[in-house]
Amino acid sequence: MRRVAIAISLLLGQLVAPAWAQWTDEAQKCAETPDPNQAFELCTRAIQSGALSGAGLAVTFNNRGNAYQSKGEYQRAIQDYDEALRIDPDSALAFNNRASAFQHDRAIQDYDQAIRLDPSSALAYNNRGRTQHLKGDYGLAVKDYGEAIDLDPDYPLAFYNRGLARFDQGLYIAAVPDFVRAVQLDPAKPYRVIALYLAKARGGDPDKEMLKASASQLNLAQWPGPVVNLFLGQTTPQGVINAAQDPDQRVQRERLCEAYFYIGEYLLIDAQNAEQKAEAIRMFRAAVETNVTSLFEYASAKAELKRLAQQ
């Protein structure tokens, strides 16, 4: 269930370039490059050149903030968004992106501002829904995801996210149509394929034929391919944990959070006795103990533990 893509720009995933004369080649290249390290260097040179002012400078601070956020350097990203908003206090773009970097209660305030400044932004509604969801405010999250879908009926991320919110409420069957639509709109995203299988399986219909058909379009050699293989019976829980290892400690911690959550779900789907249920609980606790609070697997593990405690 991957973290909800934070979508740290208004152009749905791209750094932003304005269409006015107050601009430089380096600022343009910063806006165009997908590499956060290169974007950081180009934006910094453009900012320090003294050639930018006004909206052009604000957008470049915003873009450098996006580069920081892509690298996981959230405090530095917030500082750049602050500067962008100091220059341009009515930038819905910077409010949206700063909210993504906050990821807490303060984020809601910034998303509120972004929506006030641009009420047609499906992205801002989706991102506010993400924050509500991670707080456990599922009703508000579902409402915001619904607003995003109303604004953009072909927004796969909003369908996926709404499905996740319903899944975390234990409304597995209700989550299925959202996941079906998310997969229809973008069948190449493995987390959406996994989510659809899980919702059906937890609702009593473990449709492995559907999963197998969808998996044929995925690269299972890359993460989270081992998770798909687990549900197909082609690897073991330990095999998934082994595959989650990575030299980058941040990446490894995220993958382990996901691995523990999905192994917990795998155990619950086929739970035949109290021992398997206890092992599932242990896996969900392990996911929570990674403390990767920006991942939905973390939030979903907490939701599962709460439900299991009430049984």
List keywords for this structure.
311 residues, single chain, disordered N terminus, Serine Threonine Protein Phosphatase 5, Tetratricopeptide repeat, mainly alpha
What report would you give on this structure?
The chain has 311 residues and is mainly alpha-helical. Mean pLDDT is 91; it is low at 1-14. Among the domains are: 1-118, Alpha Horseshoe (Serine Threonine Protein Phosphatase 5, Tetratricopeptide repeat); 219-311, no CATH class. It contains 17 helices and no strands.
| Poorly predicted sequence stretches spanning 5 or more consecutive residues | 1-14
Q: For the CA atoms, what is the radius of gyration?
A: 20 Å
What is the name of the CATH superfamily of the domain at 1-118? Answer: Tetratricopeptide repeat domain
Which geometry do the CA atoms define?
Answer: globular
Condensed summary:
By secondary structure, the chain is mostly helical. Helix content is 70%, strand content 0%. Among the domains are: 1-118, Tetratricopeptide repeat domain (Serine Threonine Protein Phosphatase 5, Tetratricopeptide repeat); 219-311, no CATH class.
Present the secondary structure layout.
Blueprint: H1 25-32, H2 36-48, H3 54-70, H4 74-87, H5 92-102, H6 105-117, H7 122-134, H8 138-151, H9 156-168, H10 172-185, H11 190-202, H12 208-215, H13 225-231, H14 237-243, H15 249-269, H16 274-289, H17 296-310
Helix pairs in contact: 1-2, 2-3, 3-4, 3-5, 4-5, 5-6, 6-7, 7-8, 7-9, 8-9, 9-10, 10-11, 11-12, 15-16, 15-17, 16-17
